[in-house]
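so im writing up the methods section and need the Receptor-type tyrosine-protein phosphatase V-like record in one place, dumping it here so i stop losing it
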Amino acid sequence: MLTVGMENGRVLCEYYWPTDISPVSSGEISIHLLAQNFADEWTTREFKLQHKGLNMERRLSHLHYTAWPNHGIPESTTSMIAFIELVRAHMQSVNECGPILVHGSAGVGRTGTFVALDRLLQQLKHEKLVDIFNTVYSLRMNRHCMIETLGQYIFLHSCILEKISEDPLIGLSEISHPVSLKSFVQHHAKNCSQSNAGFLKEYEQMLLEVAKEEINSAIPPSVNQQINLSSSKIPYDRSKVKFLPLDRDPFSDLAHVWFIPGCNSAKDYIAIEGPDKLALEEFWGLIWERGVHTIITLLPRQMNSPAPDKSCWPSEGEPVCTEMLTIQQGPEKIISGWPCVQLRLKYEKKAKERVLQQFRFPLGEGEELPDPEVLVGFLTVVRQLVPYRKRTSPLVLHCSSGGVGQMGILIALDTLLQQMKGEKNVDVYGVVLRLVRSCCLMTPSLDKYIYLYECIRDVITQKQV
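--- predicted struct ---
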């Protein structure tokens, strides 16, 4: 559903579902509301349908996008893409049994734009190309006025442009080495033989693949890259985060920020080196714009390492204020031994408010890696507390200068743990390759590459997942 019930005093759609535990009947069918979850730009509902005559019942998911004005376009391409990915995830969870019913008010403008965008994203994923003109032409041949305004037609292009610019996997050869959970321990032992010869072969192949892609891409360095050459901090253009500030000024960059792919999309993680007080506005604007639900702060253990800038974070009774946002610290809880702080963000201009959670994890000294059991336990706690309705939003990790490499290890291991649960196999090679494609500063050493294997081996043998 892509419309609200009433807009500007005009009824656009009747509410055809129950709003509380009392069922609604239509003929021989009764509709029961089982669950309802509200997000900022959509609401998800679960219904149970009962047919009295046939004595049958079914479950139905109702995904309701609430931020799309009639004859207009959504404010954010990011939220629309995330909503379509949510719809696709629901389809996969029920093995795509039956079609999707899509409706707005008249069923042409917003409906046509949604159907076209979903089709184009699938075409981009499977064919590595898009044909917007013929997609819209085909829809209009089947239903009058599908995509009814020029703005909606342009919006399709904007969404596809964002997906291409943010997805480091599009247009690149996909190489992966998935290993089933049943054979992983044996695969690990085989790679360990002859002084880790198997690991060395995989690792060198991964580095060679990255080198070939960088040579073939021939992307000229951006202004930021030229500035940072002296410090060897060269973020890849294709994964650098671009976001729209809250006051809708032109796009702006927050230095040393990268999208990192995970199991579900090419932007499951946002990795940040910083922030400092000079980047305060952009940092919190990014957190709001991307609908972030969880922040992981990586704390250095070395005495001479810079700690996170305290001026960027609220403390009890002392909020942090930007031009548009007020950030307040809520209560702190200890969950399975890990401190979790609640942060409350208020967007005064639109009278909106969100709550997110912040975890802290201590980094090892120098290149020292954390104990596998400790790190796996921490990531498990974080994932257990991610709200279900927010699982399409990115997880943010940030560190001080010098911690990007270890931050990459946390991201890679979290992705592998999600693979274990969802796919019943793990692909250490593929996950690390995508990580390095996105941020060259996260290129692990051979020892760190083997460490990821050892973490997964320990999880399997100890049955932690």
